[in-house]
């Protein structure tokens, strides 16, 4: 496991260095520093405030998705969400999602597989809204720069969101056919020992159990409402970053810039999405005629406004939960690592 982790860490570091080089190769660092120093403090404070508000919306939305499994405590959800996002700041490969599922399963005595299933559903709701944001940006916003580079940048977005639709439809279909899918999986794993095969099928059952909210239209409506609110605040964050640097861009520009930021987060890299996030956000601003120096400044400020609060609160939440778990007896059947369930 440690060798695999080190391999992923080094590959992620190389990816981050590559994208950071691409972002900085035509940038004047002195100009970037001047932009950051001259940014309006009040706007930056509001960016951080809106970012933290999004966490409370995520925590409330997660309650809705977890409700069919169990009524969970706000404090437990609060700390595990921050632990998960904080883990993404220090661990590669979005491992924070597994960390979040593991911690909530331990403190709430749930199956980690079922909890992880709700996180997958959560990401699907985010994907639905991001898909809408992407198409609104494409349809309503005339892009000043029309060179071939624009299409090279947007092509990954088209493939990603197209794949998201396929995945969403497949997941909904498989939820209604979970028994058939699990039977098929069991037949395909005939070569494994019975104990291993049973463990994998059990993990699959618990994962599908976490997809229960997809059956309930009321849960759909609530989750979509909170998802819309969450991503509107995220768009407004980008708009505030523009204002803090004195950029006169339309609010509609935030739609494509947010799409680019999402691509930067999705690309496997070093912890904290350093490199790809900066490059793609920079390119998003460049699409609207912003010079590379100021575009990189905007990317740096947007990243810092999310990274440092998440890391600090995530560390505090981690220490708190460790103290709670050290005092609280935990049902061994509930303490299941997601990765362990699928081995």
Structure report:
78% of the residues lie in helices and 0% in strands. It is globular, with a radius of gyration of 21 Å. It starts with a helix and ends with a helix. 38% of the residues are buried. The C terminus is likely disordered.
Structure in a nutshell:
This protein has 343 residues and is mostly helical. It contains 14 helices and no strands. Helix 2 (29-38) packs across helix 13, helix 3 (41-66) packs antiparallel against helix 10 (217-244) and helix 3 (41-66) packs across helix 13.
Task: Give the topology.
Blueprint: H1 2-24, H2 29-38, H3 41-66, H4 74-90, H5 96-108, H6 112-140, H7 148-176, H8 178-188, H9 194-209, H10 217-244, H11 253-266, H12 276-286, H13 292-327, H14 338-341
Helix pairs in contact: 1-12, 2-13, 3-4, 3-6, 3-10, 3-13, 4-5, 4-13, 5-6, 6-7, 6-9, 6-10, 6-11, 7-8, 8-9, 10-11, 11-12, 12-13
Structural class by helix and strand composition = mainly alpha
Give the helix proportion (percent range): over 70%
Radius of gyration: 21 Å
Mind summarizing the main beta sheet?
Answer: none
Uncertain runs are 331-343
The ordered H/E elements are HHHHHHHHHHHHHH
- Number of domain modules: 1
Distance between the termini: 12 Å
Residue-averaged pLDDT: 82
What is the percentage of strand-forming residues?
Answer: under 5%
List how many beta strands DSSP finds. 0
* Helical stretch tally: 14
């Amino acid at each position: 496991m440690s060798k695999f982790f080190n391999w992923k860490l080094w590959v992620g570091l190389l990816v981050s260095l590559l994208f950071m080089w691409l972002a900085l190769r035509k940038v004047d660092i002195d100009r970037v520093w001047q932009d950051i120093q001259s940014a309006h403090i009040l706007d930056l404070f509001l960016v951080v405030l809106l970012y933290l508000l999004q966490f409370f919306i995520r925590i409330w939305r997660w309650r809705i998705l977890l409700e069919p499994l169990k009524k969970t405590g706000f404090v437990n959800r609060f700390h595990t969400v921050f632990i998960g996002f904080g883990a993404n700041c220090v661990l590669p490969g979005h491992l924070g999602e597994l960390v979040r599922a593991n911690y909530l399963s331990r403190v709430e005595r749930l199956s980690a597989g079922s909890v992880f299933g709700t996180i997958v559903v959560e990401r699907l709701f985010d994907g639905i809204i991001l898909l809408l944001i992407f198409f609104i940006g494409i349809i309503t916003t005339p892009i000043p720069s029309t060179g071939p580079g624009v299409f090279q940048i947007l092509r990954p977005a088209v493939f990603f969101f197209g794949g998201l639709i396929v995945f969403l439809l497949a997941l909904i279909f498989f939820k209604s056919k979970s028994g058939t899918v699990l039977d098929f999986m069991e037949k395909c794993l005939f070569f494994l020992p019975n104990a291993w095969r049973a463990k994998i099928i059990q993990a699959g059952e618990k994962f599908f159990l976490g997809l229960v909210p997809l059956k309930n239209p009321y849960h759909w409506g609530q989750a979509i409402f909170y998802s819309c609110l969450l991503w509107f605040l995220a768009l407004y964050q980008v708009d505030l970053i523009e204002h803090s640097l004195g950029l006169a861009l339309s609010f509609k520009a935030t739609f494509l810039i947010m799409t680019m930021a999402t691509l930067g987060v999705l690309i496997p890299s070093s912890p904290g999405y350093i490199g790809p996030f900066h490059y793609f956000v920079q390119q998003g601003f460049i699409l609207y005629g912003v010079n590379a120096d100021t575009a990189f400044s905007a990317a740096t400020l947007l990243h810092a406004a999310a990274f440092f609060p998440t890391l600090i609160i995530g560390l505090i939440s981690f220490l708190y939960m460790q103290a709670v778990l050290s005092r609280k007896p935990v049902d061994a059947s509930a303490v299941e690592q997601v990765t362990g369930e699928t081995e």
